[in-house]
C-alpha cells in the first residue's frame, strides 16, 4: 500500500512538473528571466467572436515603474488586439455582434504582490527574483460577454531591467504578450 501511494505521488509530481515554469539562473544572464502561465477555463474558439472589448485593470495607486501609465496601457492593448484579431472573424466594415471581452493589467511588484495577484486573478507564474530585483506582471483574461464567464487566463512575469530604454521595455512586453497568446486559436 505504501509503495502504491509513493508511486502515485511520484507520478503526480512528474505530471505537475510540466505545469510549472522554472527559471534557471545564469552566471552572466544575457536575457532576464520570463515566466508565463496560461489556463483555458472553458472550450472556445477565437473565430466565434467578431470583435474585442477592452476592460483595463488599473491598480488604485500609481506605479513608480510606469510614470506614463496611460501610454503603457495603450501599447499593451494595441499588442493584445494585434495578436488576437488575426485569429478572429473581424469585419472592420460592421459593428461587432459577438465581441470578446479582454481584461488586462500591468503592474510591478511594488504595486501588486504575487499573493494579491493570486487572490484577484487566480494564478501567477511565480517568478522568483533576487532581493532588490523588481518584477513586472502582465495579466490577461478573456471573458464571454453573454455570461461573464472567464474563458482563458494568462499571466507573464519578467524581471525589470532598469538599464533598458522605454522602446526595449515595450518590445519585451510585446514579446511576452505574443508568447502568452500564441497557443490560442
| Strand order of the biggest β-sheet | 1-5-4-3-2
What is the CATH class? Alpha Beta
Mean pLDDT: 79
Domains counted in the coordinates: how many?
1
Sheet of most strands: 5 strands, mixed
* Radius of gyration, taken over Cα atoms and rounded to an integer in Å: 18 Å
- Taken in chain order, the helices and strands follow as HEEHEHEEH
How many individual helices?
4
What is the number of strand segments? 5
Portion of residues within helices: 25-40%
Percent of sequence in beta strands: 15-25%
Structural class determined from secondary elements: alpha+beta
| CATH topology description | Double Stranded RNA Binding Domain
Distance between the termini: 44 Å
Tell me which CATH architecture applies here: 2-Layer Sandwich
- Overall geometric form: globular
Residue stretches low in confidence (pLDDT < 50, at least 5 long) are: 1-29
Protein name: DUF4136 domain-containing protein
Keywords: Signal
Organism: Endozoicomonas numazuensis
Amino acid at each position: 500500500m505504501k509503495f502504491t501511494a509513493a508511486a502515485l505521488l511520484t507520478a503526480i509530481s512528474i505530471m505537475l512538473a510540466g505545469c510549472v515554469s522554472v527559471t534557471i539562473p545564469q552566471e552572466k544572464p544575457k536575457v532576464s528571466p520570463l515566466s508565463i502561465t496560461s489556463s483555458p477555463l472553458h472550450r472556445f474558439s477565437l473565430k466565434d467572436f467578431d470583435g474585442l472589448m477592452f476592460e483595463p485593470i488599473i491598480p488604485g495607486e500609481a506605479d513608480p515603474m510606469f510614470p506614463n501609465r496611460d501610454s503603457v496601457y495603450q501599447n499593451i492593448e494595441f499588442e493584445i488586439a494585434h495578436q488576437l484579431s488575426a485569429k478572429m472573424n473581424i469585419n472592420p466594415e460592421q459593428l461587432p455582434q459577438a465581441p470578446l471581452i479582454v481584461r488586462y493589467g500591468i503592474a510591478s511588484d511594488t504595486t501588486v504582490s504575487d499573493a494579491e495577484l493570486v487572490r484577484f486573478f487566480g494564478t501567477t507564474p511565480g517568478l522568483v527574483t533576487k532581493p532588490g530585483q523588481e518584477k513586472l506582471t502582465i495579466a490577461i483574461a478573456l471573458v464571454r460577454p453573454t455570461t461573464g464567464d472567464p474563458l482563458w487566463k494568462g499571466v507573464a512575469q519578467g524581471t525589470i531591467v532598469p538599464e533598458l530604454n522605454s522602446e526595449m521595455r515595450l518590445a519585451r512586453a510585446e514579446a511576452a504578450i505574443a508568447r502568452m497568446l500564441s497557443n490560442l486559436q
